[in-house]
Every structure is written in C-alpha cells, then in structure tokens.
Amino acid sequence: MPVTEPAPAKVNLALHVVGRRVDGFHLLHTLCVFTELADLVSAAPARKDMLHVSGPFGADLPNGRSNLVIRALEKFRARFPGHLPDGIEIHLEKHLPIAAGLGGGSADAAALLRVLARLCETPVADGEIFALAATLGADVPMCLLSQPCEVTGIGENIAPLPAFPHMHLVLVNPLEQIATPDVFRRLEHKHNPPMPDLPEPLDRAALLSLWLADTRNDLEAPAIELVPAIASIVDAIATTSGCVTARMSGSGATCFGLYGSAAAAHQAAHDLRERFSGYWVAATPLLGQ
C-alpha cells in the first residue's frame, strides 16, 4: 500500500526582510502558518524510481530532476544508503498553484521526506530528517514541521508556537507565476526593522489582529511591480466582511485574508470568485484546527 502525506500550503502572515548576508542570502523574520489545503504526496516500493504528477496544477510541473521532490529522494538515498527499497514510485497530486508564495515545492519535498522516513527499513531520527531538509532549501524545514512558527535567519531558525488562535484563510492567486529572485532584486530596502515581539501565549484572534497591525510583508511592494493585480486583490480581500488582515504571502502572487470563522471565510471566497472569475480562490482552515 502507498504511504501518503499531505503537503500543506505555507502562508506568511508577516514577512520582514531584516538584512542580507555576504553570500547574498536575505535574512528574514516571519510568522508562518499552514493550511488544511494541501498537495498530496504518496510513494510505494517499485522496480525503479519514478515520479507521476497529477492534479489541477500537475501540468505545470516537470517530473524529472528539476522537480524538488526528485532531488529530495536522491539526497535521502545518498544520506541514508540502504534504508529504502531499490525503487520508489512517487505520486504528486498538485492542488496548489506554482510559484505562488505558498511554499508548494518545499512543502512537496518535505512531505516526501516524511513519506520516505515511514518507508525506511531502518528508523531515521527526526533530527537527521530536519538536517537533510535544510540542504533542500530554506523553506523545507519549516514545511517539514507544518505548524505555526516564528522563523528567523534564512529559514534555519524555527520556533514553533505553543498556541495559536482558531482562524480561517481565503487565498486568491491571479494565476501569474513570480520567481522569488526577481522579487528580491526589486526590493529597495534590505535592512528593515524586525517583527514586534509575539504575545505569549498567542491564543486569541484579537491578540493576533492587534499584532498583525504592526507588521507587513516587505516583498509585497516589489511583487506588485511585477504583477500589479496583487494590489487590487489585497484591496478587494480587505473589504470582505469579517476580514482581520489582508496582504500578500511570501514573494507572491497569492494574497490572503484572515477570518475568525469558516462562514465568513466561505462567504468571502464566494464574493471574491464573482469579482475575480479567472483567478484561483480557495477558503481553508489553518492546519490542525
């Protein structure tokens, strides 16, 4: 039987760019949450390694080495030789748009690492899996965790939040892909103030709302230069009933609204689909709620 793991979408509720290292990597301070909306990754022993991609956005993805899922498999085999069957057949069901600021590729790779750990004939320690995840990209370790967390550095410092309020999201993407390096190249100020201290515990929607009012996404303005539709999407989300916060996630172009109830989120999604008929719109609870 195949082993299956979800690859939840990652949403940056706030994203501050606070510096740049000498090697060119940008230093971030971000609050990340994850959604029940997810890609699905499954795998089973086979005669040889194979990747099949399906789903609404499957046609947009390659199934060769340029896919981060294949690189995750190769690195897992290299780091843990003899732990896996000789062949692994992987099926990636792609429900999240590509290059959308939702960490989709990183989430897929992280989900595969969880699958491979379950398929191992010899157990592998969690710390070893996280170390491997860090070699695949800055977002992969936090996607491996897939719970609300405060992240600093280039993504390597992850502090899980012990509590988080029950919230819902509406996600809107204009179906225009954005390359993250292009956004960072247009970022005018690379040394900005960090996020304010998080309330402890962060367990009520009102606390989160007040805190978010003093935060931002530093990548939103440069992303709007590439995809001007982002600005009108954020404005439209902000006018929906019950919206706590509206802004762009990650490097875009997906924008989100944060809501206190499923009813408000689903009504907002309905209204936004009517306004943006050609866009991808989805309502989803945060993961684990």
TrEMBL record:
Residues 216-277 form the GHMP kinase C-terminal domain. ATP binds at P97, I98, A99, A100, G101, L102, G103, G104, G105, S106, A107. Its EC number is 2.7.1.148. Residues 67-146 form the GHMP kinase N-terminal domain. The keyword ATP-binding applies. Pathway: Isoprenoid biosynthesis; isopentenyl diphosphate biosynthesis via DXP pathway; isopentenyl diphosphate from 1-deoxy-D-xylulose 5-phosphate: step 3/6. GO terms for molecular function: 4-(cytidine 5'-diphospho)-2-C-methyl-D-erythritol kinase activity; ATP binding. Keywords: ATP-binding, Isoprene biosynthesis, Kinase, Nucleotide-binding, Transferase. It is an enzyme of class 2 (transferase). The active site is at K10, D139. InterPro entries: GHMP_kinase_C_dom, GHMP_kinase_C_sf, GHMP_kinase_N_dom, IspE, Ribosomal_Su5_D2-typ_SF, Ribsml_uS5_D2-typ_fold_subgr. The keyword 4Fe-4S does not apply. It comes from the Bacteria. It catalyses: 4-CDP-2-C-methyl-D-erythritol + ATP = 4-CDP-2-C-methyl-D-erythritol 2-phosphate + ADP + H(+). GO terms for biological process: isopentenyl diphosphate biosynthetic process, methylerythritol 4-phosphate pathway; terpenoid biosynthetic process. NCBIfam families: ispE (TIGR00154), PRK14608.1 (NF011202). Catalyzes the phosphorylation of the position 2 hydroxy group of 4-diphosphocytidyl-2C-methyl-D-erythritol. Belongs to the GHMP kinase family. IspE subfamily. This is 4-diphosphocytidyl-2-C-methyl-D-erythritol kinase. It comes from Pelagibacterium halotolerans (strain DSM 22347 / JCM 15775 / CGMCC 1.7692 / B2).
